[in-house]
Design a protein that fits this description.
Number of helices: 8
CATH superfamily: P-loop containing nucleotide triphosphate hydrolases
Structural class: alpha/beta
Number of strands: 9
CATH topology: Rossmann fold
CATH architecture: 3-Layer(aba) Sandwich
Distance between the termini: 26 Å
Helix content: 40-55%
Strand order of the largest sheet: 2-7-1-8-9
C-alpha cells in the first residue's frame, strides 16, 4: 500500500535543497506544491515552487477544508498543503513526499497517522547557523527569528519515526528515498 512520507526539520537544514535533489534524481517521487501567503523569492515560480496566495485566498482554502495541514511559519506567513492532490496521489499508488514544517507535520500525523515521518537534522548547530547566514536571503531580524524557531524545531526530533542527518545532500536524499521503499540503485544509473 502506498504511504505518504512527511519530511520536516528546522529552518535552513536544507529541506528545499534535499527535495530539489530528489526531484532531479528520483522522478518517481511525487511532491505536493504547498500554498503560501509569503511573496516569492527570486527564481521561484507560482504553481511550481509554491502556490502564492493572498490572505483571502488562503482563508477560503481553510474554510472549505481543502488543506491537509496549514500553519503560520516563523510568526509571519502561512503555508499549507492542498488535501485533494495528496489523496489522489496515494490513491494512484504513487510515492508522495511532503516537505513541510514541524507544525504541519503534527497536523498530518493527526490526519494520516499511517504516514512515515522523517526528520531532517543538521550535522551540528554551528552548521545550521552557517547555512542560514550563507543563504543571504533573510535580514538579520529574520535570521534571529528563524534561529529561535530552529531551536524549538530541533527539540521535536523525537516525534518523528526516523532521522536523516543532512551532512551531504545526495546521501541524505538517497536515505530518504530508501526509507520510502524505493530502489535507489536503479535511479543512480539514469
Amino acid at each position: 500500500m502506498t504511504r505518504l512520507t512527511v519530511l520536516a526539520g528546522p529552518t535552513a537544514v536544507g529541506k528545499g535543497t534535499v527535495s530539489a535533489y530528489i526531484r532531479e534524481h528520483f522522478p518517481q517521487v511525487w511532491f505536493s506544491v504547498s500554498a503560501t501567503t509569503r511573496p516569492p523569492r527570486p527564481g521561484e515560480v507560482d504553481g511550481v515552487h509554491y502556490h502564492f496566495l493572498s490572505d483571502a485566498e488562503f482563508d477560503e482554502l481553510i474554510a472549505s477544508g481543502s488543506l491537509l495541514e496549514y500553519a503560520v511559519v516563523h510568526g509571519r506567513h502561512r503555508y499549507g498543503t492542498p488535501r485533494a492532490a495528496v489523496e489522489a496521489e496515494i490513491a494512484r499508488g504513487g510515492s508522495p513526499l511532503l516537505e513541510i514544517d514541524l507544525q504541519g507535520a503534527r497536523q498530518v500525523r493527526e490526519a494520516m497517522p499511517e504516514a512515515l515521518f522523517v526528520f531532517l537534522a543538521p550535522p551540528s548547530w554551528e552548521e545550521l547557523v552557517r547555512r542560514l547566514v550563507g543563504r543571504g536571503t533573510e535580514t538579520q531580524e529574520e535570521r534571529e527569528r528563524r534561529l529561535a524557531s530552529a531551536k524549538i524545531e530541533l527539540a521535536a526530533e523525537s516525534e518523528f519515526d526516523r532521522t536523516v542527518v543532512n551532512t551531504e545532500v545526495g546521501a541524505a536524499a538517497g536515505e530518504i528515498v530508501g526509507l520510502m521503499g524505493l530502489n535507489t540503485d536503479e535511479m543512480e544509473n539514469l
